[in-house]
Amino acid sequence: MFASDVLAGRVAIVTGGGTGLGRAIAVELARAGCAVGIVSRDPAHRQHGLDAVREVGGVGAEASCDIREADQVAAAFDAIESALGPVSLLINNAAANFPVLASATSPNAWRAVNRIVVDGTFFCSQELHRRSVANGLDGSIVNIVATQAFTGGPGMTHASAAKAAVVNMTKSLAVEWAPDGVRVNAIAPGLFPHEEMRDDLKALRTSGADVDATRAPAMRLGERREIGWAATWLCSPFASFITGHTLVVDGANWLRRDFVMPPFTPIETQLTNVLRPKD
User: Fold this and answer.
1) pLDDT tens-digit profile of 13-69?
2) Cα 153 vs. chain centroid, distance in angstroms?
3) Which helix (H) or strand (E) holds 202?
4) What domains sit in the chain, N to C, each tagged with a CATH number?
5) Residue 2 pLDDT grade (very low, low, confident, very high; cuts 50, 70, 90)
6) Is residue 79 classed exposed, middle or buried when 0-12, 13-18 and 19+ CB atoms within 10 A define those classes?
7) CA 233 → CA 28, 101, 142, 183, 226, distances in Å?
8) Is 60 helix (H, G, I), strand (E, B) or coil?
9) According to the model, what pLDDT value does residue 258 have?
10) Distance between CA atoms of 249 and 121, rounded to whole angstroms?
């Protein structure tokens, strides 16, 4: 999509950059000339992301990090900067979600999702801002959210509430950090299936991609590289006056409404039928 040097000389960190959309974003950043740091708790995931970056001719490094812990975030930035140079781009992609009824959500489940999504996004963003200002570099942060942040997410109250917090955080930080030259935006992806999806999330899909595609007005599923392109654009000079914005990339799916809505099935019934199907 871009010239191979549009991000030359820049260094990005992609949290959760070893699988799924995170890896796709890391690859497209690398295609645009950016050096990419892959940050994750899982060493195998980190290696997968690093291999993907190198396969397209990119330069990368990896670092272990639990983004819920601010000291580990700082250490991961140190490691990536030691290998690649000053970091000025950040993709907050790491997240946690799983289908569960609100009435059955345990305190630990609630805290785990919110700590990864909300705390992790904030700690990483704060670290990027601090270093960009110290190094005299313009910075760009892209938070990966979800359209559930706008509509609510029955069956995933914990995750949708956390993503809504990140959408709000995106706007707040954009205003605070604009004078420092640090832009903060978000992307809300639509249906982008990938092989690393967990079984419980796959179970909420239909039996085939062809059927899933008919659920979006665009009549197709998203290609992971399209999220990579969107993130690369938001990090690039072509989006230099854009901050505080959430870009929805979903083929108009979240806006779809029928004149007469189909019969409603309670969320408890949906999850029971999908996750614990009857014989």
Assistant:
1) 999 999 999 999 999 999 999 999 999 999 999 999 999 999 999 999 999 999 999
2) 17
3) helix 199-202
4) 11-275 (3.40.50.720)
5) confident
6) middle
7) 10, 37, 10, 13, 11
8) strand
9) 84
10) 20
Which value, to the nearest 10 degrees, does the dihedral of the CA atoms of residues 188, 192, 196, 201 take? 80
CA distance 201 to 218: 22
- pLDDT interval class at 279 (50, 70, 90): very low
pLDDT of 273 above 80: no
The encoded tokens of residue 165 equal 């917090």
Task: For residues 13 and 277, give the distance between their C-alpha atoms in angstroms, rounded to a whole number.
Answer: 40
| Alpha-carbon distance values, 198 to 19, 147, 149, 217 (Å) | 12, 20, 21, 26
Q: d(Cα 145, Cα 248) in Å, to the nearest integer?
A: 9
Q: Which residues contact 251 (CB under 8 A, 6 or more apart)?
A: 190, 191, 216, 217, 218, 219, 220, 222
Closest CA to 141 of 169, 175, 182: 182
What are the CA-CA distances from residue 243 to residues 30, 143, 229 (Å)?
Answer: 22, 12, 17
